[in-house]
Amino acid sequence: MSDRALVVLIGAPGAGKTRTGKRLARLLGVPFVDTDQRIVAAHGPIADIFAAHGEPHFRALEREEVARALGESAVVTLGGGAVLDPETQADLAGYRVVQLAVSPEAVEARISGGKRPLVKDGIGAWIALVEGRRPIYDRLSQLTIDTSRRPLDGVAQEIAEWLETQ
Fold first, then answer.
1. Structural domains counted in the chain
2. Partner of 111 for a Cys bridge, out of 8, 14, 21, 146, CB 3.0 to 4.6 A?
3. Which long-range contacts (CB under 8 A, 24 or more apart) does 49-56 make?
4. pLDDT of 111 higher than 80
């Protein structure tokens, strides 16, 4: 097995990247790496990092974790904004990248609760954020799956089947 990510999941906040990634890793029998979870484990809640140090500091921590994760033989999920970094964009060119998308109607309940600092102002903020990032998500991914009304087990299975053809 190589020392590089088997597949990278990107996409909008609340699209189900972490939950799908865990299911996919189980299906493939490989480790699962969520870069946001690693940042939280090492530095505390993301909202607290934003509040205490600002977004640029968080993005620097995120870039380091993304670079590390891409070197592991695992299913890797990135935080929604990780793709904003030009180095991350360049790195992803050599990987199989799947974008998970979700409609505003389906995501509204998923993003409530205030744990996501860039969408704490609700669905309008989420829509603006996602529309701004969509061209990057689209350019970086080879496969896009809408998770709005699909069971995530089925999404993971679809990705596993797609990986077999790559």
1. 1
2. 14
3. 50/117, 51/117, 55/118
4. no
Q: Which amino acid, 140?
A: L
Residue 118 scores a pLDDT above 50 = no
- CATH number of the CATH domain containing 81: 3.40.50.300
Is 56 part of any domain?
yes
Q: How confident is the model at residue 79 (pLDDT cuts 50, 70, 90)?
A: very high
Report yes or no on 146 lying in a domain: yes
Q: Provide the pLDDT for residue 115.
A: 56
The H or E element containing residue 64 is helix 55-70
What b-and-e string marks burial along 102-113, b requiring 16 or more CB atoms within 10 Å of the CB?
A: beeebbeebbee
DSSP strand E in 12-142: where? 32-34, 75-77, 97-101
Find how far residue 144's CA is from the centre of its chain: 13
Residue 2 lies in a domain: no
Structure token digits, residue 132: 């701004």
Give the rounded percent of residues in the chain with a pLDDT score beyond 70: 92
For residue 2, the model assigns a pLDDT of 62
Q: Give the span between the Cα atoms of 27 and 48, in whole angstroms.
A: 34
Exposure string of 60-96, with b = 16+ CB inside 10 Å and e = fewer, is ebbbebbeebbebebbbbbbbbbbbbeebeebbeebb
